[in-house]
Structures are given as structure tokens and as C-alpha cells.
Design brief:
It contains seven helices and seven strands; from the N terminus they run ααββαβαβαβαβαβ. The protein is α/β, with parallel strands linked by helices. The radius of gyration is 16 Å and the shape is globular.
Length: about 210
């Protein structure tokens, strides 16, 4: 196996294992903005999961992969109308809140917190990274960025993922060449920066109820 193949196959393994660890003890998970390839596909499922997304083609693709047990196509801001308070052990939104303006994202987070019985998990880039719509999906535009302090102000414990912030740009792509070298640096340093989220590319926030 080449170094490139190794990185391609394992580049997000620490992220998936972190998510899996924080979902231990949860029997039901609501995946907000699940998209067509939720990270839940890469964790050991010891729970039932329900995926929600506003983009119908993403739901269709996710169903074909059998990632979730059940699905709903809906405006994400209507989740409080779809699900009762304390109806899922965990409610997650991975790479989602940056697609709303800050005020609206906070409204969504509050709705997630009401639905969650045990914990809420959020993942978003550390700071603002511009992104336009792609794949005919208008919801892919980035509208805000988040900091460690903003998560902490909302009561979240924050961890870092995907290695040093300075190595990555739009779409989490490695900025520098040779790509293989810097990709390996990001992979190796990710565990060491896990508890230094301000230096990491992604912020992983967890709030227990």
C-alpha cells in the first residue's frame, strides 16, 4: 500500500473513532443535515439512527447506502415540529451549522438540545471558510464561522479534529505541496491537537444534558 492510499483510506479514522466513542451508551441518534454520506456510516452502530436533510437527492443516496434506519426530508429548522422533546438519546449536526447565519444556527442548536435526551454533538470548521453551492444543492453555501469560545459560551466541551488549522483550506483540502507529506503531517498530529481545538481545523463540540 502506498502512503497516498494509506492516507486516503485512514485520513478521517480519528474523527470516526471520536464520534463513535462519544455515542457510546446512546440507543438512538438523530442526524441533522445527514447529507448523502453521513460519518455514521463509518462508526460501529450500536444504536438506531434517523437522518434528516432538506435536500431530497441526498436522502435518496443515503437510503441507497442504508446508512440510517429511517429518514425525513425537511427544512432543518422544523425539527421541533417533527420530533418531540427528549425523543433521541443523541442529536448530532456534523458540518451543518456553518450553512446558516449565526443567529439562525443558534436557533437550530437550541431545537436540537430540546430533542436530545443525553447529549448533543456538533462539528464545524474552526473559523469561517467560504464555500459555494455545489452538486445542485443550494444548502452547501457557508454563511458563518465558529470559534472554540463561542462553543464554550453555549456550554459545549470542545475538541480538535483533522490536524492543524493552517494546513487546510476550503473543503478541508491540504494547502501545501507535496500533498502526501503535509497530509501525513495532518494525520499524525491530529491526536496531539485533540485537546488544543483552537489550533485544529475542525471543532468537535459535545454537550451533555
Amino acid at each position: 500500500m502506498t502512503v497516498k492510499n494509506f492516507i486516503d483510506q485512514n485520513k478521517d479514522i480519528f474523527y470516526f473513532k471520536t464520534l463513535e466513542r462519544h455515542l457510546q451508551g446512546c440507543k438512538s441518534v438523530l442526524d441533522i443535515g445527514c447529507g448523502d454520506d453521513s460519518p455514521l456510516r463509518r462508526v460501529k452502530k450500536t444504536f438506531s439512527s434517523h437522518g434528516v436533510d432538506a435536500f431530497a437527492p441526498s436522502i435518496k443516496k443515503s437510503k441507497a447506502k442504508k446508512i440510517h434506519d429511517t429518514y425525513t426530508t425537511s427544512d432543518l429548522l422544523k425539527i421541533d415540529k417533527l420530533f418531540k422533546p427528549n425523543s433521541f438519546d443523541a442529536v448530532i449536526a456534523l458540518d451543518v451549522i456553518e450553512h446558516f447565519d449565526k443567529k439562525t444556527a443558534k436557533v437550530l442548536i437550541k431545537k436540537m438540545e430540546k430533542i436530545a435526551r443525553k447529549k448533543i454533538i456538533l462539528l464545524t470548521p474552526n473559523g469561517f471558510y467560504p464555500q459555494d453551492a455545489y452538486g445542485n444543492n443550494p444548502w452547501q453555501v457557508h454563511k458563518c464561522g465558529w470559534s472554540k469560545k463561542e462553543f464554550e459560551d453555549l456550554g459545549y466541551k470542545v475538541y480538535g479534529l483533522r490536524g492543524p488549522k493552517f494546513l487546510r483550506g476550503d473543503y478541508a483540502t491540504i494547502l501545501y505541496k507535496p500533498w502526501i507529506f503535509w497530509g501525513l503531517v495532518a494525520f499524525i498530529t491530529e491526536p496531539f491537537l485533540h485537546f488544543t481545538p483552537s489550533l485544529s481545523y475542525d471543532l468537535f463540540g459535545v454537550k451533555r444534558k
